[in-house]
Amino acid sequence: MAVRAVDGSAGDADYGAIGGGYSRYRRPDPRIARAVAEALGDARTVLNVGAGTGSYESADYEITAVEPSASMRAQRPAHLAEAIDAVAENLPFADDSFDASMSSSSVHQWSDLAAGLREMRRVTRGPVIVLTGDPDAVRKFWLYDYAPQVLETEVRRYPPVAEIAGLLGGEVTVTRIPIPADCTDGFNEAYFARPEMLLDPGARLACSAWSFVPAETVAAYVEHLARDLADGTWDARHGAHRAQPAYEGSLVLIRATP
Questions:
Q1: SS3 252
Q2: Of 37, 150, 158, 230, which one has the fewest beta carbons inside 10 Å?
Q3: Rounded to an integer, what distance in angstroms lies between the CA atom of residue 196 and that of residue 173?
């Protein structure tokens, strides 16, 4: 059964507490959006599960959005369709209702991954698209040197790519998505070339993994990063990232067709 927080959030993070800045810090990146659009192909009707503030909902499609968090639904721009209050594990739609369905940075929040993916497959005639993080690639990011508990949280929460692929079944492709240096979708790796952004409490709060780490531990992590940025240690070790146009990290797009 899906678990809801006070504000209606489903999963293990309370977006009533941490979700207030998502529309500012987690804006859809156009290059990632292109990868999503290519995966959706010629679909006309698209279901977005765990839709949040509406990232990657293109006007090229007839979108139906599902989002259990009241705070996230409230941040959806006026030009987007109002999101339905429901959870992935119990979608209120008939079989084969949509040409395609998608989930962006959401599956790690679900209380029952198998049930949620089964529901997406049930209501979808064509491709099911999952944009998520590959837990096997998380620890290679430089942030592990500064905030290991944060990234261990991501490793623990992200379902293995092979598990998602196996549950979806059918013909499955997995594409690793390069993360641009100026990525506007502010997950942790989006700041691979802009480490100063992770000194911003709002930026950290828009990455839910930080909320699972005790405040005093987060403070120590931030102090360590700030100190290494100030004295040049970070640049001596990782400064080459500042000149990289993109980073191949944990971001993957999984596409499954029946």
A1: strand
A2: 230
A3: 35
Tokens of 211: 């909320």
Mean pLDDT of the chain: 92
Angle at 256 between CA 141 and CA 190, to 5 degrees: 25
User: Strands 251-257 and 128-133: what pairing?
Assistant: antiparallel
Q: Which residues contact 164 (CB under 8 A, 6 or more apart)?
A: 107, 113, 117, 130, 132, 254
Interhelix angle 161-168/113-122, rounded to 10 degrees, is 40
Asked if 247 and 226 count as a contact pair (C-beta separation under 8 A), the reply is: no
For residue 20, with 0-12 CB atoms within 10 Å meaning exposed, 13-18 middle and 19 or more buried, which class applies? middle
Structure tokens given for 248: 């191949």
15-257 architecture in CATH? 3-Layer(aba) Sandwich (3.40)
Per-residue pLDDT reduced to its tens digit, 145-177: 999 999 999 999 999 999 999 999 999 999 999
> Which tens digit of pLDDT belongs to each residue from 95-145?
999 999 999 999 998 999 999 999 999 999 999 999 999 999 999 999 999
Domain boundaries, the chain: 15-257
**How many whole angstroms from its chain centre is CA 26?**
9
